[in-house]
Amino acid sequence: MKVLPKKPLSVWRPLNLDDFLLGVPHYPEHVDESYWLRDAERMKAAGFNTVRMGEFAWHLWEPYEGKFDFDLFDRAIEILGKTGINTILCTPTATPPRWMTLNYPEILRVDRNGRQASHGSRQHGDTTSPVLRHHSRRITRALAEHYKDNPYVIGWQTDNELNTTVSESYSDSTALAFRNYLRHKYADISALNFAWGGNFWATAYDNFDQVVLPIPMAPSFLSPGHVQDYHRFLAQATADFQRDQVEILKGVNNKWFVFHNLGNLADIDFRGQFGQDLDFIGFDIYPMLYDEMRRTGGHGVTQALQLDICRSHSGNFIVPEQASGFGSQPAFSTMTPEPGEMRRMAMSSVARGADGLMFFRWRPAHYGAEIYWMGLIDHDDEPRRRYHEACQFASDINLIKNELLGTSVAFDIGIAGADFDNQEAHKTYPMGLPSPQDDATLFYRHCYESGISCGFIHPEDDLSRLKVLYVPHWLMWQPEWTEKVTAFVENGGTLLVSAMTGTRDTNNHIPTELAPVAGLSALLGIKVEEFGRLASPQEDGLFTRFPVEQGLYNTQKPLPACSANRRYQYCLNDQVFDAAHLYEIISHEDDVHELGQWKTRFMEGKPLLTNRAVGKGQACYLTTYLTEDMLPSLTKVLFNKTSVQPVIKDLPKGIEAVIRAKDNHKLLFLINTLECEVLIENIPKGLDIIYNKTIEERVLLAAYDYKVIRL
Asked: Where in the chain is the domain with CATH 3.40.50.880?
């Protein structure tokens, strides 16, 4: 396997490997050595080429300080390698060993209540700790030097799901590192006081040594600038912790690829140093875990949403952990994929950008906090339906991979995403409003259910491949993005900007000029003169005043309404809808057209949706937040001057149609996410490259089955 030169981060970036990574995370330390050869042979028979191992094994690599023992993994790697299975090793820094936490307790995280973590289960180490970083560099160098010439070790994963268990820390080392970060960011303490609004509530500092960590509600609300900088710092600290390892690994053997596997995406700036340091990024995909936790409306759309969010950060990726069955830890469990569904979920990952995939896990553990997290092999060492589905999937991948590699996912509708500052800005001062991602999810689900290709994209990426770009309430807007979206519109694109966009600067201050700032007002031809809160759908109140849940302000419990009739409505596409969350009153230039108006109370007759012709395209502005009810009318109005069409006309519910393409080479993925067979019609003529069969007009897809068609 060769590592090719990597391209800059972009949603369109292909993976820089010349083969498809296919296999499983493997834990030889969890079973008797008598299993190892049989495991390797079964993996090879399944069609796998790679395993990932070692992420939680620091205590085995270094049983006590300065004493390294590589024997167990040397033997496991050798057996796998001779059977034809390569190994990805992991730096084991997610689980510092017990001798370290006993000898150096200062490495432990401290929570917002001042409680120091105990040893285990993982991510108990504080990545801001200089002591932990020292030991992290030691173990990484020892591993790199030992395996630098091993032909079976092809690459590395840094740590494991950084910040997934916990991302925040309030330790002494965190406070010191935060102050040092601020000293580099700000020229002097007066600059910091300006950024954080020190003249409000007497929060100004005399010097950097006085700066405290932003402990929520201690005793009241914090400056948004303070909170934003803390999370910027956490993201930088995470990137620095990882860079230590990347520099060592690449310095020892520059033929290795290095990546990281992400879990919940907390406090990581993918487009910054973190992502730029890596060859590519991995995302761990557990659709049925997300669905139960986030309740976004079904396993199919839930997985598609997560995959498209991930791809917006990095371009094509690998899935180092793909759900293979029932999963649980003591406090929760997932739903169980039905027969055929594991294979379907894996191909959905590939369709939406995965150029490598590993089923989690090879076999389940017999002890510990994941004894019921099932693998491909059951507890009794028998391969059953999950193993056989994995074999079938591997066979399919080996048939299509040569046509797959180098392609990227094509989509017509872009939703602005993958921006760390805008993700965090909302959290610093949410006011009970939906987050940009909450709003974007509504838009995405509508497109998904309509069969329209939709994805997330950063404004810095190439926008020319899009037909429509939607900006969901991005509080912070940069002038250079205006230049990009203006060119997009002038060349024929449709831009939709939504309420509250461009209303804060990078310090979370409100500018003195009317929103939207940074040139957007001139492009759109509008200015926001007033805004105000509205109740959420089916609620008469706004939000509870002071409760705090996990650092964010709880907005779920409504207060009694001032008036049972305090509702606002608007008219769009000759239909009347209840407004939700927020209204804006705008003024606009003479060449701006009104495509919808507010209908009731003092808002009657004021513009709801505006449109301005710019070059060959149109720039539109929406003076409220989305609701599920209004989206069909909004998109009908929005798309009427575009060539946006579903990927497949009259696509049946539950069917995904996704295109991966490079130049004129196109692969159409048709995926049935349902438990019943579905007839799909209006399919363009092409070749089913798995079964080498011509497809014309229609195909009957069995439950959880798929087709990959070369158009």
From this structure: 413-639
Cβ atoms of residues 670 and 348 within 8 Å:
no
Adjacent-strand bridge partners of 469: 414, 495
Catalytic site includes residue 589? no
- Residue 640 has phi, psi (to 5 degrees) of -65, -20
Q: Closest by alpha carbon to 303, among 322, 281, 320?
A: 322
Please tell me which residue, 441 or 641, carries the higher pLDDT value.
441
pLDDT digits (tens, 9 = 90+) for 26-62: 999 999 999 999 999 999 999 999 999 999 999 999 9
Question: Which stretch of DSSP H or E encloses residue 215?
Answer: none
Catalytic member of 55, 62, 168, 321: 321
Contact 677, 703 (CB under 8 A): yes
175-191: b or e for each residue (b if 16 or more CB lie within 10 Å)?
Answer: bebbbebbeeebeebee
Question: Going by CATH, does the domain composed of 1-9+20-168+235-283 fall within 3.20.20.80?
Answer: yes
Beta strands in 158-277 (DSSP E): 257-262
The pLDDT value given to residue 238: 97
552-599 pLDDT, tens digit per residue, is 333 344 434 444 456 899 999 999 999 999 999 999 999 999 999 999
Q: CATH 2.60.40.1180 spans which residues of the chain?
A: 655-710
Q: Of the residues 161, 341, 389, 656, which is catalytic?
A: 161
530: annotated active-site residue: no
